[in-house]
Structures are given as C-alpha cells and as structure tokens.
Amino acid sequence: MATEDAKSPEKEKLLPRLRRKYAWLDHLIRANDAFTERYGNHYAAAITYFSVLSLFPLLMVGFSITAIVLRGNTAVLNQIRDGITSSAPAGLGDFLNSIVNAALTAGAGTGILGLVLALYSGIGWMTNLRDALTAQWGQEKRQLPLVSTTLKDLLRLAGLGLALAISFGLTAAGSGIGQVLLELVGLENESWAVFLLRLATIVLGLLANTLVFLWVIARLPREKVSARSAIKGAVMAAIGFEVLKQVTTVYLGFVTNSPSTVLFGPILGLLFFANLVSRFLLFVTAWTATAKENMVTVVEPPPPAIIRPRIAVERPRFPFSATAGAFSAGALLGWFGRRRR
Questions:
Q1: Which of 308, 321, 323, 248 minimizes the C-alpha distance to 278?
Q2: 3-class secondary structure per residue, 100-137
Q3: Which is the most buried residue in 137, 157, 211, 239, by most CB within 10 A?
C-alpha cells in the first residue's frame, strides 16, 4: 500500500509534465477544456437539428434560383450538382441527388411558401451557427437588435451559400476540365495521368474547402477575428472533413446492411454526418481560439487601497546621557557660585 501511495503522486504529475514537454498536447487539452466549458456539444446538437431541418428547403430555393439564372445551361448545373454529391459521403450521394433533382424540376414553382420556409429555417441555422462560433471564440453574447441581426444573418447565409456553390463548382469543374485535357492530349488511358488528375482534384477540393472553412471560422462569429490566426484551423477542418466523409461512408455501410434500417439509412446517415461535422467544426474553432497568439491573459486589478490617516502625538524624549550631563552641569555651576560668595 505504501508503494502504491508513493506512486500515485507521480502518476498525477505525469500529465502536467507531458503538457510542458509537448506543446501540441497542451494545446489539444486547452481546446478540449474550452470546447466543454463553452457548451460545444449542446451547440453542435442545435446546429445538427437546424441543418437537417433547413437542408431540403434551402436546396430547393437555391437550385430553383440557380435554374432560373442558368436557364438552358445544363452543363454548369450538372457540375454544381456533381460537386454537391461528390462532397458528401458515398452513402448520401443518391439521397442528395434526389433532392437536387426535385429542386431543379420545381424551378420557379417553389412558390412563396417554400421561400418563407427556407428563410425561416436558414436564418435559424445561421443564427445558431454564429452563436456557437462566437461562444467558442470566448466572446460574450450581447443583446443585439432583432431586425439588424436578422438581416446580417440573412446576408451571411447568402454569402455562405455562394461560397459553397463556388467550392462545389470548382471541385466538379476541375475534374471535368482535367478529363477533357487528358482526352485532348491522348492520355485518358494512361494510369499515371489518371492518377495525377485524381490527385489534382483532391488538392483542388481541399483548397476549396479550406477557403470555405476559413471564411466560416474567421468571419461568422459576431465579432470578427483575424483570418491569419484561423488559417491553421481552416486547413485542419478541410482535412478532417474528408476524414469524416470516409467515417460516415463506413458507418452507412453497416447501417444499410441491416434490413430494418434500410428505409431510414440515409436520414440516419445525414444526422450522423451533420453532428460529426458540427462537433468537429466547433472543436477546431476552440482549438484556433486557444492558440497562444489568441489567448488573452486577464490580470485581475489589485484591491482598492484604503487610506486611513493616523495622528500620533509623541512626547519629546531625551536620552539618559543628555539628562545626566545637564544635571551634572547644573550641579557644577551651583558649586562655583557658592565658592565666590
């Protein structure tokens, strides 16, 4: 027992030693503590709910507007659709493709009701997302005017939709243009050329995702933060997003093998993927916010000084030697006076 008691303090000191030795581990633990203290899981659940709720109406309205603007240009529409389906996990591609096809078919027939539903769910999603990112940056939630805040959230929603459309379009166009170039030079059957094309498509997709995540992490919080400090977090989010896609693909493979869950497999997969991405995005934001260059050390002010005047009256004090000297001098003078008489 004595040996175990002696070792227990050493075990307790192991983590602080590792944190001092490895800066990345200390940063990771700080990020996890901040994510937990700032209710990251609760915000991720809210984002997941509004993501699933607003997905269909937003896609309907977005592609209806796109179909009107790009009327007759089916090649661009197909590229954007392919970009969306390729950016999703393999098990969700068909599900999203059916939603996009329904939106393209509806066109202008979406109607006022669909637009209102999309605006309501989309603003709710954007509001929760901005509040969650603001909390992970450690910014205080302030009371903001309802009308101006709603308009800003609507503009941010439109900006994010445009950024995602550009990202999907770049990813799909990069693959399509690369394939056309290979066919022009006669290398479409060469394995090394096809490999390089796939590698370039992956790099282009990562770059497009990095730009989107950079905008989300640095510009969506209520108080803007430096884009320079969010670059590492955006790169980490883009790479992690691809990893989460593979994890969701494996999960959907297990789900769809069960006859009882085949019907709800895409919905479960969408919920699972949205929750994973939401948690990961908020954790990456907390990781970015807890970097040393972004941490603000708050120094508590000293307690107020209390000035109490004290008046002390001291009696004059003479040292013993001075008193004795004066007494001796007086006695000597008295002796001289008596002799003169």
A1: 248
A2: HHHHHHHHHHHHHHHHHHHHHHHHHHHHHHHHHHHHHC
A3: 137
- Overall pTM surpassing 0.90 (yes/no): no
Q: What is the pLDDT of residues 152-171, one digit of tens each?
A: 888 888 888 777 777 766 66
DSSP string, 292-320: TTT--PPPPPPPPP--------------H
- In 3D space, the residue among 15, 13, 48, 51 whose CA is nearest the CA of residue 33 turns out to be 15
pLDDT for the residue 339: 55
Domain boundaries, the chain: 39-135+148-289
Listed residue (263, 213, 266) closest to 89, CA to CA: 266
CA gap 61, 113 in Å, rounded: 11
In this prediction, residue 279 carries a pLDDT of: 94
269, 255 contact by CB (below 8 A): yes
| Cβ neighbours of 179 (radius 10 Å) | 14
On whether the CB atoms of residues 252 and 92 are closer than 8 A, the answer is yes
Q: How far is Cα 54 from Cα 122, in angstroms, rounded to an integer? A: 6
CA atoms of 132 and 146, how far apart (whole Å): 18
pLDDT at 1: 47
Q: What is the DSSP string of 266-284?
A: HHHHHHHHHHHHHHHHHHH
Give per-10-residue mean pLDDT for the chain (341 aa).
Answer: 52 76 88 92 91 79 71 68 70 70 64 73 87 88 80 82 72 61 67 73 81 87 79 89 81 67 69 89 92 64 64 55 55 56 54
Residues 6+ apart with CB under 8 A from 212: 160, 163, 164, 167
Apex 288 CA angle, 285 and 291, nearest 5: 150
Please tell me whether residue 137 adopts helix, strand or coil conformation.
coil
